[in-house]
Specification:
By secondary structure, the chain is an alpha+beta fold. It folds into 2 domains: 38 residues; 142 residues, Kinase associated domain 1, KA1 (TATA-Binding Protein). 48% of the residues lie in helices and 16% in strands. The protein contains 6 helices and 6 strands. Strands 1, 2, 3, 4, 5 and 6 form a 6-stranded antiparallel sheet that branches. The longest helix is centred in the first third of the chain and has 30 residues. The protein is elongated. It starts with a helix and ends with a helix.
Length: 213
Amino acid sequence: MAAVRGTSLDNAVYRIQHVRRRFLACPHMSVTHVLVGRPSQGKRKVAVTFLIVFLVVAVAAAGMAALSWMAPRPGFLGVHDGRLADCPDSPNCVCTQADDTEHWIEPLIVQADPEVAMDQIKQVVMSTSGSRIIEQSAVYLYAEFRTPIFRFVDDVEFLLDAESGRIHFRSASRVGYSDMGVNRARMETIRRRFSELQTSSRATPRDALLKSR
């Protein structure tokens, strides 16, 4: 038993002295490198590959962002024969007047006075981060939206159809191909907030009092 203990103690002392010699010989090395050694060749290759892919993606995204910043506003926007512009073939656009299922999205339903409804749309747009209203009238509103990180520009339009009780809209990325569903998700958020505003505006004084309790 004493021999075993002595052997274990000798091994521990040897390990401590070995680590000390390595650390003194290479003071620039981290403690982790001293204790477990340098990363294997395979791990270094994986790390380098990951870094290269990350840099390529970052540079590409930054380039697209720069193009989006510099790209002029599309000249085909606006209302033409009672309709908003068609979506391009790329999937980075949604429109309530689109003829295909990939780009089509349900219009907003007006449940109050049409003029009030357009004011509510304006409120929702102005309260949304990254938005800027470019043009507006009694039946039309055009705004730019910038994404949070790379500041990509999306062009968003609203068109009131008072007869049908609907607000048509179109939301499209200014440059690029895929938007990863950003335009559709944004418009669904606007739909929810617009619906909440309409519900709030229809509440009677008694309902409002009950909600405040």
